[in-house]
């Protein structure tokens, strides 16, 4: 199935959306996140820009991040999301959020976060990451992301989309999911 809601996101009518576009490297988090934020008229947060320099250097050298190294980064994203929502602004953030504990950490900053999981296969992710120019994440780290990936469970506020679809289709499908909630 191309489009599936693990648990239909629920929010009060007129509430400010807080959405995290998640998945492994190469799934299209940034492209879909930018398009979704534009379609909804909300702020976009690029999670990769919030990594501390040490994390970027580690990944650029081919070393995966540990849970401990991700904590500060997740906090920075969560704080930005919460600040936008507190100001009455909707927000879409791009963040891998690979483990449930990472999603729980983000939800601690804003319980109404909805996760949009862009599901992709390892081969396509490796190919996409390998063809990117100017990004710190090497294709050699894609497998480490799949090794720790915990797709959202049925009890999480998350929807899943097939990330092999074109970005425009994914954005349109995401807008439909968000507006249905």
TrEMBL record:
Give the record's GO biological process terms. D-gluconate metabolic process
List the top taxonomic levels of the source.
Answer: Bacteria, Pseudomonadati, Pseudomonadota, Alphaproteobacteria, Hyphomicrobiales
Species for this entry: Mesorhizobium ciceri biovar biserrulae (strain HAMBI 2942 / LMG 23838 / WSM1271)
Which reaction(s) are listed as its catalytic activity? D-gluconate + ATP = 6-phospho-D-gluconate + ADP + H(+)
- Name of the molecule in the record: Gluconokinase
* Record InterPro entries: P-loop_NTPase (IPR027417), Therm_gnt_kin (IPR006001)
Q: Which Pfam families match?
A: AAA_33
Domain of life from the UniProt record = Bacteria
Pathway named in the protein's UniProt entry: Carbohydrate acid metabolism
Q: What is its EC number?
A: 2.7.1.12
Query: NCBIfam families from the xrefs?
Result: therm_gnt_kin (TIGR01313)
